[in-house]
Design goal:
By secondary structure, the chain is mainly beta. It has 2 domains: 6-178, CheA-289, Domain 4 (OB fold (Dihydrolipoamide Acetyltransferase, E2P), Beta Barrel); 191-331, Beta Barrel (OB fold (Dihydrolipoamide Acetyltransferase, E2P)), CATH 2.40.50.180. 9% of the residues lie in helices and 41% in strands. The strands form 5 sheets. A 5-stranded mixed β-sheet has the order 8-1-2-10-9, with no helix packed on it. The longest helix is centred in the middle third of the chain and has 15 residues, at 172-186.
């Protein structure tokens, strides 16, 4: 491989550390669902889940690397990896981006005096990406090396098994979301009714959940530094640089009669025709697949949102309003028509 060759890496965070794995080893990324305990599995295996008909093991990456057990959160994700014929998921806190790293910029991992031939190293190297140092993991070693070669894991680092529930410290609402995710993952999208299902991205404003049809969502991104635009209407928040492109951010809370807040952390990039805008949201949850029958008409209780919502659907123990983003873009008055 030439010195100038670029290797694509998926970057992610775990316990405050930035890691990377070769993107070619990544099959998909899903929100953490409810996991089923795996009997006779190594301590670092958190459980298994049904991924569209395939039973996949999931490792607690922190335990695999020899870190103490930290518990699970709704915001955690599973990165599904494949190497040398084996498929396995690993639990991470957040997924950042896919970046190209020059092969010449990857430095070998350090070796220490206490290392022995039996001591396994999961670190393939490290590289500087921007101002950060990224730990690059060796996927085949993560997936294939047996427990006898893994870092020592003390009994106090591993939660007792079996639990009555996955993630027993979670609330009833969080547990319902974990279970809903597991149910969505086990559905084989190749089934006869797959074409009838509507893919929706679930987002959150304050305490309210909303579903947005995926065909209008281009991507999601972290909310970064916003530059204000002078003399613009109040719903125009400003511009954000998204990988070199200038993205205008618009506030749709007013259209939905939601109290204004400063808790937005993510941006939903909406694209329709030639119009492309960013909508700041408090949280992005996951993609769900609903049958038309799963979406009910809005009740009188939600009539203030009727104009820009198509209906309502159950999400965990809560309800999610289904947004009509095409109507919001066309009739919500989001475009800036006056000259600035």
């Amino acid at each position: 491989m030439g010195a100038l060759a670029m290797i694509p890496y998926l970057l992610f965070d775990l316990n405050g550390v930035r890691y990377g794995v070769e993107a070619r080893a990544v099959l998909e990324i899903v929100w953490l669902p409810e996991l089923t305990p795996a009997e006779e599995a190594p301590p670092y295996i958190a459980g298994v889940f049904n991924r569209r008909g395939n039973i996949e093991p999931v490792m607690n990456l922190g335990l695999r690397l020899g870190h103490p057990f930290m518990g699970y959160q709704l915001s955690d994700r599973i990165v599904v990896l494949q190497a040398n014929g084996m498929t396995m998921g690993m639990i991470v806190n957040d997924v950042s981006d896919v970046v190209g790293i020059p092969a010449s910029a990857i430095e070998p991992p350090p070796r220490y005096d206490g290392d022995t031939p039996a001591h396994i190293h999961f670190l393939a190297g490290h590289a500087k990406v921007g101002e950060e140092i990224v730990m690059l993991l060796d996927v085949p070693r993560l997936l294939h090396f047996p427990l006898t070669h893994a870092p020592d894991i003390s009994a106090s680092d591993v939660p007792a098994k079996p639990f009555a529930h996955f993630c027993p410290d979670s609330t009833d609402e969080e547990r319902a979301v974990f279970r809903t995710r597991a149910h969505n993952q086990m559905q084989a999208m190749e089934s006869l009714d797959a074409a009838e299902r509507i893919p929706l991205s679930v987002i959150q404003f304050g305490e309210e959940y909303f579903g947005v049809e995926l065909n209008i969502v281009r991507e999601f991104a972290h909310l970064r530094r916003v530059t204000a635009i002078p003399c613009c209407p109040s719903h125009i928040i400003g511009n954000m640089n998204l990988r070199g492109d200038i993205l205008t951010l618009v506030n749709i809370r007013g259209l939905l009669n939601i109290t204004a807040g400063n808790s937005a952390a993510e941006v939903m990039v909406i694209e329709s025709g030639e119009l492309s805008v960013g909508v700041p949201v408090d949280r992005v949850h996951e993609v769900i697949y609903l049958r038309p029958a799963d979406i009910a008409p809005l009740s009188a209780m939600h009539e203030e949102k009727n104009e820009y919502c198509k209906g309502v659907a159950r999400y965990g123990v809560s309800m999610a309003n289904i947004l009509d983003m095409q109507k919001i873009l066309a009739q919500g008055g989001l475009e800036v028509e006056e000259e600035v």
